[in-house]
């Protein structure tokens, strides 16, 4: 599973950056203990250390509902002869506690989906489209992770909506109902 790295950032005070990095790693480790599904999102990052294609950075300008985002692509690695999923996960500097854990898990779910697809790309550019999730699929999967993390912490501070009714995530809605609503989206 490899190891993620933190981006070198001159825009954040070094001490502040160190705190953000420690908070991120703590949240990732907390997620690893929630369930197999959530642990898989923590493992997608790997451990902190040498590069595995996953870079984590912090920004105060992330405006998504989760307070985080990921962007990635398939890059050919000459040394291994394989394609690697290289991505940058951006976490809002203001996130803390369960909100941070939920964001780390949500984006980790997207990272896992990206890695799973890129792992099927061969040197001759054959790939298995059946494992390429649509934007919709990867998003709904990630929201189920968000829900599970909020539920574990007995909170309900997040909902999401696309063009339909908002779906409330966390303890004030039953997991069954969340799953049903997400399937209907
Ligand atoms: Zn998402």
Which structural traits does this protein have?
single chain, 185 residues, alpha/beta, five-stranded mixed beta sheet, two-stranded antiparallel ribbon, 21% strand, binds zinc ion
Quick overview of this protein structure:
The protein is α/β, with parallel strands linked by helices. The chain contains 5 helices and 7 strands, in the order E-H-H-E-E-E-E-H-H-E-E-H.
3D architecture notes:
Helix 1 (about 15-30) crosses helix 3, helix 3 (about 95-120) packs antiparallel against helix 4 and helix 4 packs antiparallel against helix 5 (about 175-185). Strand 4 and strand 5 (about 80-90) form a beta hairpin. The mean pLDDT is about 90. With about 180 residues, the protein is of the alpha/beta class. The protein contains five helices and seven strands. Strands 2-1-3-5-4 form a five-stranded mixed beta sheet. A two-stranded antiparallel sheet has the order 6-7. The chain has one domain. Bound molecules: zinc ion. Zinc ion binds near residues 106, 110, 139 and 142.
């Amino acid at each position: 599973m490899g190891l993620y790295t933190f981006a070198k950032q001159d825009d954040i005070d070094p001490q502040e950056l160190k705190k953000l990095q420690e908070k991120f790693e703590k949240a990732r480790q907390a997620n690893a203990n929630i369930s197999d599904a959530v642990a898989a999102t923590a493992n997608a990052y790997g451990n902190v250390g040498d590069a595995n294609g996953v870079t984590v950075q912090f920004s105060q300008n992330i405006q998504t509902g989760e307070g985080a985002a990921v962007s990635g692509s398939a890059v050919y690695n000459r040394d291994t002869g394989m394609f690697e999923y290289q991505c940058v996960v951006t976490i809002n500097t203001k996130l803390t506690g369960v909100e941070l854990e939920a964001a780390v898990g949500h984006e980790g779910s997207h990272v896992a989906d990206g890695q799973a697809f890129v792992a099927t790309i061969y040197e001759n550019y054959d790939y298995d489209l059946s494992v390429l999730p649509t934007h919709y699929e990867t998003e709904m999967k990630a929201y189920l992770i968000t829900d599970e993390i909020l539920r574990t912490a007995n909170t309900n501070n997040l909902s999401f909506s696309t063009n339909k009714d908002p779906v409330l995530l966390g303890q004030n809605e039953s997991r069954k109902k969340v799953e049903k609503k997400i399937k209907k989206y």
